Each structure stands twice: as C-alpha cells, then as structure tokens.
Amino acid sequence: MLIRNRHWKPLRYRWVGMALLYLTCCAVFAQEIDGSGAPPARGTTPPRDVLDLSRAWRLALAHDPVYRAAISEQAASKTERAQGRAGLLPQIHAGYYRGKVTGSATQPSPLGRQIGSSLDYDSYNAYVQLQQPLVDYASYADYRRGNARADMGTAVYMVKRQETGIRLAAAYFNALLAYDELALQRSLTSSLQDQTADVEARYRQHEATRIDAQETRARLALARADVIDAHDQWVVAQRELEALLGAAPTHMVLLRDDFPLPPPMPPDLDEWLANARINNAKVRSARLAVNVASTDVDVAASRYMPTTDLVATYGKAKSEKLSSLSQRTNTFSIGIQISIPLFAGGYNRANVSRARSDLRRVQHEFNATLEATWAEVTRQYTNVQAGADHIVALQAAVASGELSLESARKGFLLGVTSNLEALKAQDRLYQTRYELSKARLEYLLAHLKLAAAAGELNSDTFDHINDTYLGPVVALTRPELGGSVLVASVDK
Predict the structure, then answer these.
(1) Alpha-carbon distances, residue 224 vs 342, 409, 458 (angstroms)
(2) Could you give the angle at which helices 281-301 and 269-279 cross, rounded to 10 degrees?
(3) Would the pTM of this model clear 0.85, i.e. be above it?
(4) Is 415 left (phi over 0), alpha (psi -120 to 50) or beta?
(5) Is 455 helix (H, G, I), strand (E, B) or coil?
(6) Sheet of 50-51: strands edge to edge?
(7) Strand-strand pairing, 50-51 and 251-255
(8) Strand ranges (E), 346-491
(9) Contacts of 68 (CB under 8 A, 6+ apart)
(10) Rg (Cα) of the chain, in Å, rounded?
C-alpha cells in the first residue's frame, strides 16, 4: 500500500499508522482467502494503468476527435428545434431615428407672394412594434422542420457513436493481433536459433549435411526479418489505438486461453432483422431524413399561403415632418395585418418541384439503407456462426500441426525425413497459430458488428466481451529516446 501524503508526524499521528497497518493486514488476509488467480468479477475496475476493452471504449468516448466532433454536431442540431419554434412566438422590433434638419422653406402667402423661412431644428422618431403570427402556415412548417432536423441530428449522432465503437474495437483487436504476431515471430526465431545451433553441431559431427545447415540459417535470417516487420506493425497498431484514446497505455489486456463459443442471442436471424429495422442507427437516421424532406415540401408549399398577423405599435416623435414642426406626438396602434402572395416569378412552383424530387430521392435512399442493413445483419450473423466453426477447426489444426512438427523433427533425427520438411512443418504450425488468433479476434469483432447492425452496441456489450474473453495483461515499456514499443512481460 502506497501512502501519497508526506510530512507525517509519527508521534502525533501514531494511531493513524496503526489503523492503516490493521487495514492492510485485513486486505492481505482477505486476498489470500479469496484467491489471487481468479479473474476479476463483472464490473470490477482494473488498475488505471491497465487498458482493457471496456476502458478503451470509455477513453475513446472522452478523447476520440471524430466522436467529439459528432457531439458538437449534435449540439448544433438541437438548436434547430428552438429556431423552428421562434417563428411561432411574438416578434418585437424597435427603432430610433434622430437627426438635425437645416435648410430653407418657401410657401405662398394669401396675396400670392412667396415667403421664405430658414429651417434649423432637431427631429426624432422612436417606436416599438410587436408582431404575433395568427395564421402562418410557413412558420408552422418551419417549426415542424426544426423538430425533424433536431431528431435527425440525434440519429446521426447515434450512427457516429456506433461507428466509433466499431473503430475502437477494430483498433484494439488489431493491436492484439499485432502483439500475437510479434510474439509468434519471436518464438519462431528463438526456436530456429536453437535448431541452427543443433544442425550446425550435427554437421560438424557429420550427422547432417551442409545443405541442412544452410537451409536452417537461411530460414533463421528470414525469421529475423519477419520479427522486424512484426515489430513495426505492432508500433503502428499501438499508435492507431492511441489516436483514439488520447493517451499511451502502459499495460494492455490480451485474450484468454479459454475461448468460449456461445451461439448468438437471440438465435433466430429473423429476430435480429426485426430489431435492426427498428433500432439500427442508420435506418433511424434515414427514416428521419424522409421526415425532414417531407417538411421541406411543406415549407416550400407554404409560400402560396396567406399570413395573418397581429401587429401592435407604439411610437413617439418630435418634428417628424414639416407639417408637424415643434410638435410632439405619441401614438399607439393595434390591428390585423393580412399578406396574400400573388406572383413570385415562378420561384414557388420551382421550389416545390425541387422539394418533392428531393423527397423521392431520400425515400429511395431509405429503402437502400434498409436493404444494406439487412444484408449487414445477415453477414455478421453468418460470420459469428461460421467463425465459431472456423475457430474449432483451427484449434484442431494447431494440435495436429504440433504433432506433425514433432514427427518431422524425430524423422529428421532418424534420417527418415529431410530438414526442409521439418522447417516447412514448423512454418505451417506458426501460420496456423496466427490464423487461430486472427479468427478469434474476427469472431469478437463480428459479435460487435452484429450488435451495431441491430442497434444494440453499447457499454454493456463491450463490458461483456471484456469480462468473458480478456484476461492476461501485457506490460509495455517505451525507451526514453525513440518511439519503439517493446513487450516487457506477460502476467496471467
């Protein structure tokens, strides 16, 4: 237990130290009773420096630039509701004018003579006007369109949230696959180093040929090159994951050795398709896009409709015109204002035609989105089912490959098979192990994509995958100079 507080006063706070010692002993005793080898319970939070799939998902929601942009986009779309409602509420305008008038005025007298006078006075006019729509179909159409756009903005946000989850899972699983590939390449290189030393020793004792030694050395050189390439892939995968998380992890959780293969729930494909039609984020977004296009048609058609407004005005003026020099006026008026559109040069007809054509386009896009979603659900449902069978087959292939490699090595020692056959058997085994690791990660990704296609991808989905399939922790170390990532240790 680490105590972060400093400047402890041992005499004054001796009872605090005794209490901490007692709690520490209780914690150690409880841990010994519970057992340290058991996996963490569901919902247990790992240490802050350990990155698992659940923590990666929450870090991506907090730091991924694409997702943060989607949040801002949703916030902007929410204002559409208030903008549409504003047209139904009273509009208040105020104006003020003040000026100085100078010049001369000439007017005829009763005798027919022109009498001139100079002008030099101040004039001002102030007013406040309230206008409340009473019958305004255009404002109501704008109100409905604002609500539709706000709802569509929320649906688009959910689409990008689902896409963020898939991008995060793909980046995390790519990092796991890159780590497994690097570990397999290093294990293969270590095995080939031992084989090279053994074959060369047998060659010196005339128990192996020079070709055997050259083949093993050539395969070792190729394996070392593959390690460099795998290391580069691991560094790139880590960097891509860090771009989503906004931080560099120090520890990472890997797949468990025991890998359960439960069937998808619900087991019926038709239920997944029905859920996708209702809950899929892209389908909901496309459906709301149809609503927005429909309101656009109403807005365009509303320009044919007359409007009726209640108008109330209060004004105050002084010397507003020549006939009211040196006069102050206070006026208040209230009345009904009716506006009837007659002709706009053909703009309204063209605008309505454009809106209706756009509505038909969006309806076709909705149907296309629905069909693509059903195809995606079917694809991922099949991937989950076929992925389980593929994993079982690869597990059997790995077991068979281990026996084949052992037989090839013993046959080489007995002179029955060649060294090249043993090397090929070894390559096939390590390739099969890599394919098994890849198949497991693709199986998990198919589970997440199926949940996303059905509109059910959320934090609980990531927690379930994390608690069921992840367990061992790999510690990552970074040198002070350079950006390479090295595997330090694995804790199971």
Answers:
(1) 83, 21, 42
(2) 40
(3) no
(4) left
(5) coil
(6) 50-51, 251-255, 470-477, 486-491
(7) parallel
(8) 470-477, 486-491
(9) none
(10) 39
Residue 358's closest CA among 366, 303, 277?
A: 366
Rounded distance between C-alpha atoms, residue 306 and residue 397, angstroms: 78
Alpha carbon distance 229, 224 (integer Å): 9
Q: Please tell me the distance from the alpha carbon of residue 316 to that of residue 95, in angstroms, as a whole number.
A: 10
What residues pair up with 335 in beta bridges, in sequence order? 311
Q: How far is 249 from 477, CA to CA, in rounded Å?
A: 10
CA distance 394 to 220: 26
According to the model, what pLDDT value does residue 40 have?
A: 36
Closest CA to 53 of 140, 171, 160: 171
Contacts for 215-220 with beta carbons within 8 Å, 24 or more apart?
Answer: 215/419, 215/420, 215/423, 216/192, 216/419, 216/423, 219/192, 219/423, 220/189, 220/192, 220/193, 220/195, 220/196
Residue type, 166: I
Output the six-digit token pair for 22: 């007692």
- For residues 166 and 450, what is the distance between their CA atoms, to the nearest angstrom? 10
Rounded CA gap, 321 and 318, in Å?
Answer: 9
Q: How many residues does the chain have?
A: 492
Distance of CA 100 to the CA centre of its chain: 62
442 DSSP 8-state letter: H
Q: What is the mean pLDDT of the chain?
A: 82
**Measured between alpha carbons, how far is 315 from 312 in angstroms, rounded to an integer?**
10
At 282-333, the pLDDT tens digits run 999 999 999 999 999 998 998 888 889 899 999 888 766 655 566 778 889 9
CA–CA distance, 261 with 297 (Å, rounded to integer): 51
Cα–Cα dist 375/150, whole Å: 29
Which residue in the block uniquely carries the two structure tokens 């996303």? 452
pLDDT tens figures, 355-386: 999 999 999 999 999 999 999 999 999 999 99
| Whether the Cβ atoms of residue 121 and residue 104 lie closer than 8 Å to each other | no
Q: Which two tokens stand for residue 275?
A: 């859920």
State both tokens at 122.
């101040």
